[in-house]
UniProtKB/TrEMBL annotation:
It catalyses: (2R,3S)-3-isopropylmalate = (2S)-2-isopropylmalate. The keyword GTP-binding does not apply. Keywords: 4Fe-4S, Amino-acid biosynthesis, Branched-chain amino acid biosynthesis, Iron, Iron-sulfur, Leucine biosynthesis, Lyase, Metal-binding. Heterodimer of LeuC and LeuD. GO terms for molecular function: 3-isopropylmalate dehydratase activity. PROSITE patterns: ACONITASE_1 (PS00450), ACONITASE_2 (PS01244). This is 3-isopropylmalate dehydratase large subunit. Its cofactor is [4Fe-4S] cluster. It comes from Pelomonas margarita. NCBIfam families: leuC, PRK05478.1, PRK12466.1. InterPro entries: 3-IsopropMal_deHydase_lsu, Acnase/IPM_dHydase_lsu_aba_1/3, Acoase/IPM_deHydtase_lsu_aba, Aconitase_4Fe-4S_BS, Aconitase_4Fe-4S_dom, IPM_dehydratase_rel_enz, IPMI_cat.
Length: 475
């Protein structure tokens, strides 16, 4: 029977399957690898300790502290007591159980979803979990990767299995090629706008089509990363030569004969031509434009040349209330042009957009230019590896010359769990993935966009279209 990529990943990991009276299937599936971070893991380790259980497969785990870590003064002890305790606890837990832990000042340190792939811990064909919703990122490699809860972390530590419900298949097919100035971030924001924030609940999204095949691994990770913002726990892209070239030689990737064997297997993973998807969405890349969120949910998104929606135009009462509430929190007026909205901050970072390609895209816009005086701007590379690469290319100097602060890796202003946060009412152009109320600090206002659009907006002091800047340059 023909199968999708998801079906193949699922079936190859089922230990035992069960069907309920509605025909839904759930199964005990084998989990190949788990990543752990300081915020979601303590309860899992504690549960294990209380039950007196050992970790079943220590080599299958990789831990790193990223959410609470400061992005300055990394050579000093962590000043914030809560963050210090969280990091110290992860260090103790991993040491006590013999798990692989990447310390703060290690050359491999960074955001969990950036370093997993970098180290080759993430591989095609595997199941990978983490107590973190953006684990969908790793699906860019053709891995079945999803976020799990605290009790599930304990279960994976103890048994290397999980009971899961099988997802339905949703295909997002993008024809054609992305136009210049339009990024993978614009693509995924468009998709989320079309599907809605809970539109893909219960589904695994497979992204395919010419535009997806043409994406770099960094761009594919940006796309899969935000699958959860449409409600899907997993996003997937079939592995191909781009994937293999990127992984070849990574520290934890297979080598020699094992690499050849793995390649043979990985090449069999793509969805069969006649595989059945329960749902599908088709878009043309040529029609895509830079996107910007205006509200407090990632699906409240519009083209950069759009205007703030008017609750009066909403389809029904409930939709009108939702828009009105978002406008109130965001401090916006119906009908306002998005490009007239002034910003206070720019944040380039997060597991969505902090890879070297993202920094290059932003630096290209900023080279020889300066941010507006009214704007505070921050670049937080996704990992030490990204930071060193950027420094080797002189990108850090481009950012600093443009008036940006160049920081050490971590989640930082994506989630404001460290000391990087905004004040109430402050407005931020952010390359991260969530614009929820309070996400970047109590009362802070977040607008999601691509690195290039963030850079163009930093220069303008208000939201700006990176394509306009490129046209001015050419003129
Ligand atoms: C803190 C963590 C558990 C959380 C998540 O699950 O995603 C965070 O990473 C986020 O992006 O909101
Ligand atoms: S960078 Fe943001 S989205 Fe990614 S794991 Fe950290 S907090 Fe979550």
């Amino acid at each position: 029977m023909s199968q999708t990529l998801y079906d193949k990943l699922w079936r190859s990991h089922v230990v035992q399957e069960a069907h309920d009276e509605n025909g839904n299937s759930s199964a005990l599936i084998y989990i190949d690898r788990q990543m752990l971070h300081e915020v979601s893991s303590p309860q899992g380790f504690e549960g294990l300790r209380q039950r007196g259980l050992p970790v079943r497969r220590t080599q299958a785990q990789l831990a790193v502290a990223d959410h609470a870590v400061p992005t300055r003064h990394r050579d000093h002890p962590i000043a914030d007591p809560l963050a210090r305790d969280q990091v110290a606890l992860l260090e103790r837990n991993t040491a006590a159980t013999g798990l692989r832990y990447i310390p703060l000042n290690d050359a491999r340190h960074g955001i969990v979803h950036v370093i997993g792939p970098e180290q080759g811990f993430t591989l095609p064909g595997i199941t990978l979990v983490c107590g973190d919703s953006h684990t969908s990122t790793h699906g860019a490699f053709g891995a079945l990767a999803f976020g799990i809860g605290a009790s599930e972390i304990e279960c994976v530590l103890a048994t290397q299995t999980l009971r899961q419900r099988r997802a339905r298949n949703l295909r997002v097919r993008i024809a054609g090629r992305l136009p210049a100035g339009v990024a993978a971030k614009d693509l995924i924001l468009t998709v989320i706008g079309r599907l809605g924030a809970s539109g893909a609940v219960g589904h695994a999204i497979e992204y395919c089509g010419e535009a997806i095949e043409a994406l770099s691994m960094a761009e594919r990770m940006t796309v899969c990363n935000m699958s959860i913002e449409a409600g899907a726990r997993s996003g997937l892209i079939a592995p191909d030569d781009t994937t293999y070239a990127w992984l070849d030689g990574r520290p934890l990737a297979p080598r020699g004969a094992l690499w050849e064997q793995a390649l043979d297997y990985w090449r069999s993973l793509g969805s069969d031509a006649d595989a059945i998807f329960q749902r599908s969405l088709d878009l043309d890349a040529a029609a895509l434009v830079p996107q910007l969120t205006w509200g407090t949910s990632p699906d409240q998104v519009l083209p950069i040349d759009g205007r703030v929606p008017d609750p009066a135009d909403a389809a029904d009462e409930a939709a009108a209330r939702k828009i009105a509430r978002a406008l109130d929190y965001m401090g916006l007026q119906p009908g306002q042009a998005l490009q007239d909205i002034a910003i206070d901050h720019v944040f380039i970072g997060s597991c969505t957009n902090s890879r070297i390609e993202d920094l290059r895209a932003a630096a290209e816009v900023l080279r020889g230019r300066r941010k507006a005086d009214s704007v505070k701007a921050l670049v937080v590379p996704g990992s030490e590896r990204v930071a060193r690469q950027a420094e080797a290319e002189g990108l850090d100097r481009v950012f600093v010359a443009a008036g940006f602060e160049w920081r050490a890796p971590g989640c930082s202003l994506c989630v404001a769990m460290n000391d990087d946060r905004l004040l109430p009412g402050e407005r931020c152009a952010s390359t991260s993935n969530r614009n929820f109320e309070g996400r970047q600090g109590v009362g802070a206002r977040t607008h999601l966009l691509s690195p290039a659009t963030a850079a163009a907006s930093a220069i303008a002091g208000h939201f700006a279209d990176p394509r306009t800047l490129a046209r001015q340059e050419a003129a």
